[in-house]
Amino acid sequence: MKSVKRLLPLLLAVLMVLSLCACGSNAAAPAKTEPTAAAEAQAEPASEATPEPTQEPTPEPVTLTIAITKDENSLAPFTYVSATGLTVNRLVYDTLFTPDMENNVVPWMVEDDYTVENNQVYTMKLLPGQFFHNGDPVNAEAVKFSFEYPGDKNVSGQRKVCNKIESIEVLGELELRFTLKTPDVNFLRDGFCLIRIIDPAVYEGVEDPTTVEASIGSGMYKLAEYKTGEYYVLEAVDGYFRGTPAVQTINMPIMGDSTAIQQGILSGELAASTGNIGMEMVETFAANPDLAVVANADYGPTIININNERAPFDQVDFRRALTYAIDVNGICQMIYGDYALPGAPGCLRTDLPYANQTAYTYDPAKAVELLEGLGYTELNADGIRLDKDGNPLHIQILSYAESPQRTRICELMKEDLAEVGIELELVTMDMDTADTYIWPDFDVANGRDYDLSTWGWGTAAGNSYTYLISLCHSDPGIGTYNVCGFKSERFDALVNGATITSIADMEELLRQLQEVVIDEVPLITIGCPDKLQVVNTALYDGWQSGKGANVVNIYSFLPDA
Amino acid sequence: MTERREMRKRILHYLLLLALVITVNFFLPRLLPGSPIKTLTGEEVGSLTAAEKQGILAAYDLDKPLGKQFLLYLRNLFTLNWGNSYSKRQPIWRLIRSRTGWTLLLAGSNLLVSTVIGSLLGLFAASHRQSRRGAAALIGSTVISSLPSFWVAMILLSVFGAQLGWFPLYGAYDLWGKYTGFARFLDILRHLALPLITMVFTSFMMFFTTARYGALQVLSDDYIKMAYMRGISPGRVRRAYVLRNTWIPVFTMVMLDVGYLLSGSVLIETVFSYPGLGSLMQEAVRARDYPLIQYTFLVSSTLTIFAMFLADLCQPLVDPRLRGAGDE
Q1: Is B169 near chain A, with CB under 8 Å?
Q2: What are the residue ranges of helices labelled H in B180-243?
Q3: pTM of the entire predicted model
Q4: Domain ranges in chain B?
Q5: Is B169's CB within 8 Å of A443's CB?
Q6: What CATH fold (topology level) applies to the domain B101-327?
Q7: Alpha-carbon separation of residue B91 from A476, B60, B79, B286, B299 (angstroms)
């Protein structure tokens, strides 16, 4: 009797837990088991023996749950926070042009017969039948407003683009002409693919666009629901000018933890995620027949910044010695396997048509020769070289604590540099703190306080013709990404003296600039890792992926042609 | 008279503490390296000129001298005009309010369950201190509480969430189900289960230790031996004597923990995508979102101070030995 009394509370507790699971499972059943078109097709194969209905059954609307890795506020062009927001808000807001899956710029909202004169004057006509989600028509006036409004707004990342425009003429209800202040071969990509078309009725007269809570675009999805820190719900726009999307509803829970997302994808609860997976997870996902791993070229490089303004890095031979001492290709292979393009001294992806094909050479003997040429001939008892004052050659590398891959890169570099007598100390700190040392106030004119650092640029940066110029020009107004403090009269002279009127001119300039950076080594490019994502093809089989593109893109949800 | 003087002293003490917290809350975020400029301007911050960035800072009064900013902060604080978050672009009070409920649910449940489980296990371990069962309880509790919480969270998520499908993987409730009434209650409990279990694993040890050592002290006292010699049943001795006296230090621990109810748990909330104040604070710190940092810390600190004050008031109720001590 006593033992029964003792066991009873435990039994009751177990029963409660089990009933909770059971009740909860039943209660949650509708959300989890909502059939998709693909699942239905598998579950109910067509049968010729049963009587045929006279009407085709209406396919069940497809609902997908796709995790979004960050809270991007209302997804509006003035409130999104990061590249993830830019990816997802492209579903809600259209752009005049857009990159296709081969990363070529194609017209999206405009007809194919647009004209470009001297890369300065762009004349185009909008395709008919486009509307904002509140029913307002998309017309030339709305487009003009979209390119003018951000120009003087403090919080707009688009103001630099808008301020390149000299004038916008409305030639008709759907026709416009853009005239730039100077010819710009990049404007189709950096301008027309970037600026989201907004409804003047929503933003007209609004001084601070971040105060606008509604997110009204003209894209294939409208933002039906948003709860801060919790989720988004996107609903397809019926009668979208390019066709009603194949997926009716996209539920996007905000999930900051990659492990939880991976578990969600493995269990089938999530169809995809806006985030990437690590190379080490590819086998796990590939083993699941319902999942597909997609790998595509991404344009965001992994870089080792070198502080060109600080001794001994201000000596070009020292920087060259680093490139010989570090097995760059070996590190890239170790960290990314087959899912990256090895870095090149020219700083550009070697698969670009204008890229210099020179590769890094791992040659410790050459590194030693250069170091001894600089006077680092003595070694201490630990094998570390001494400078002329007898101090050991000790350098620090800053890295983000949030990125284990970059930490591993630093550890591999440490081993390589130790071989040639350089002591490398790894210092990890949170991303925002590290940025204050590497890129204080995000202004290269404010200097820098580091020896080496791991770094990366986003897809948008690496994908632009102006990437190398922004990276290396010594004028802070032009070299806005020059966090290394690189100064080269040769490089600056080439850029300042160039007259760019065509893409061929730009590519020729880039070829010449690459030769300078190969020689003067402002930084080290470890590689360009691929964008690795995983999708559930059993839940939905319309996924599209391509160069520089997230699987969550407009092409994935377009209806079949 | 003495009691009133004591009360006034205590209230003054806590008011001074609150004033210190209000002041520190202003300066602490500004000690962080960096500034909110990237949060205020977005991804393309690098493309703005220095003058443009300065203009943005000026729009948010961030270019003013620190003293003036402090006065503005005090004015906004006491007029309850807390403004908008730099990163979330929404009223701060709304953000805090939306997360407070979930944080209180998770942290409050954790406090309750940890206290009960920890105290009962501690009493059990103390009562059976010379047996294998007592040793097993001690060793087992130590091992369980030593497990890293992030590891426990991931294991629970993987096994019970993903593989068995017993519990959901994210959220405080089914985001797409729109349940009401009892179904919603069960749904919330189901979403609470894994985060709660994870927190209890790491929290109960404190109460276990307090209860066990408190009980051990009491059990070695002469009056307990006297009670047994008088023929009072072991059960009654445990309930009326041991538990009653062990409860006092446990109560103190509980009241201290009440103060941390609103600090949230960043790790748990992140792994389980649970919308609490911990993750809100973490996001605010990362974004250098000064007003959001200030007010979330302030809310949490104020509750801590209030809990300490409440503990001070309630202590004489729990421990009769403290009643009348102020009359001396």
Answers
A1: yes
A2: 181-219, 222-229, 234-236
A3: 0.87
A4: 2-78, 101-327
A5: no
A6: MetI-like fold (1.10.3720)
A7: 36, 15, 14, 19, 15
